[in-house]
Write a structure and sequence with these properties.
There is one protein chain. By secondary structure, this protein is of the alpha+beta class. The chain has a 9-stranded mixed sheet with strand order 1-2-4-3-7-11-9-10-12. Strands 8, 13, 15, 18 and 20 form a 5-stranded antiparallel sheet that branches.
Length: 367
């Protein structure tokens, strides 16, 4: 492994912002890009990558693996009242996992449709990635957080596999990927023993995983030309924000290694097909919202299987001690994969999310 540091333009006099990368193997062949803590207050991935590093140091790598052990140094310094708040930028740009350059549009001026049509798949992939690089080089960010977004995309635009490691407030381990890559997503789920794999079509926002994978089919539509879907990208959610332990980190690092072995970038066995498919549509997610303010009393844990109509929480009205608690019920059959962070909630807050098989929504991300 060799380490590189990248200095970002600082927004404040007398301070600096630095991004660190760990690189393994060598350029040429397959490239895998992995980052953690893009939401800087999501910590399980930080420890998992330290355990993964130890395993990669002993591995035979056939290609290049780039790891960004903490992808958001801006959010890592954002503390307020003793609490780290790393999901949203304190400046203007909002959610750190939104607002990436839409390469499916930005790369179009750098591509010639007729020339692409005459190329084989390998040449098309190289040509399109060169256009991605040109588009990113032409982007002129202003905000510090935009410089961070550009840098992360420059590190990952040419990757064959992108793994963006997150966590939820309280959750079982789960992942998001595009439905076009379900087969690879199922292999990731098997490698890490995930019970929930949420399959996106168009999640309605350009999060980092979408920014990495979707340019290929966006360009395909724009150019009316069959193109390879050359980047598998996933958001891997390692349970809840308090699930930081050596045992879980080692377990998850071993799971990521199994996946890297399966795709052939690390020497080792590939997965045997266990014929278990866990993928469910993002449109099948049942989100239960708080109908009024109050205090939540959860009746289920993350990972529980529920049926439509089951009570998953009671909402207690703090203004009226005589009021009967409001039961909140499952809107679909499925697995409770995430619970809300706060027990004290306002109307409209998402308090429980359930992965179901049947489409019941537009299939967009919650926030």
């Amino acid at each position: 492994m060799w380490q590189e540091t990248i200095d970002l333009p600082s927004a404040s006099p007398g301070s600096y912002t630095r991004l660190t990368t760990w690189r393994y193997g060598k350029e040429g062949g397959q490239k895998v890009y992995i980052q953690a803590a893009l939401h800087a207050d999501e910590w399980p991935g930080l420890l998992m990558l330290h355990h993964l590093h130890a395993q990669l140091e002993q591995a035979t790598i056939r290609g290049e693996i780039v790891i960004v052990p903490y992808a958001n140094p801006i959010g890592m310094r954002q503390f307020l009242g003793g609490y780290q708040l790393g999901r949203f930028d304190f400046d203007y740009s909002g959610n750190f996992n939104r607002g990436y350059l839409n390469l499916g549009e930005a790369a179009l001026p750098y591509l010639d449709r007729d020339a692409l049509a005459a190329q084989d798949t390998a040449a098309q992939t190289q040509t399109i990635r060169s256009a991605f690089k040109q588009a990113l080089d032409a982007w002129q960010p202003q905000l510090e957080s935009e410089h961070l977004r550009k840098t992360l995309q420059l590190l990952s635009y040419d990757a064959d596999v992108v793994i963006d490691v997150h966590c939820d407030a309280a959750a079982c381990a789960h992942a998001f990927t595009n439905e076009r890559h379900q087969e690879t997503g199922e292999a990731l789920a098997q490698s890490l023993n995930l019970d929930v794999l949420l399959l996106e079509d168009d999640p309605g926002v350009i999060a980092f995983d979408e920014a990495s994978a979707s340019p290929w089919w966006r360009l395909e539509r724009a150019l009316d030309l069959k193109l390879p879907y050359a980047c598998f990208s996933t958001t891997l959610e390692l349970r809840g924000e308090r699930d930081v332990s050596e045992t879980l980190a080692q377990q998850d690092a071993e799971g990521v290694m199994r996946f890297l072995q399966h795709i052939g970038i690390v020497d080792g066995p590939t997965l045997a097909d266990n014929n278990t498919k866990v993928g469910t549509p993002l449109a099948g997610v049942g989100r239960i919202l708080a109908p009024h303010s109050g205090l939540l009393d959860f009746k289920v844990a993350a990972g529980a299987r529920v049926c439509q109509g089951d009570v998953v929480a009671n909402l207690i009205d703090l203004d009226d001690p005589n009021a009967t608690p409001t039961p909140l019920t499952a809107t679909t059959d499925g697995i409770v994969y995430a619970l809300g962070r706060n027990h004290l909630v306002r109307p409209g807050h998402v308090v429980v999310q359930i992965a179901g098989q049947k489409a019941i929504s537009a299939g967009t991300l919650a926030y």
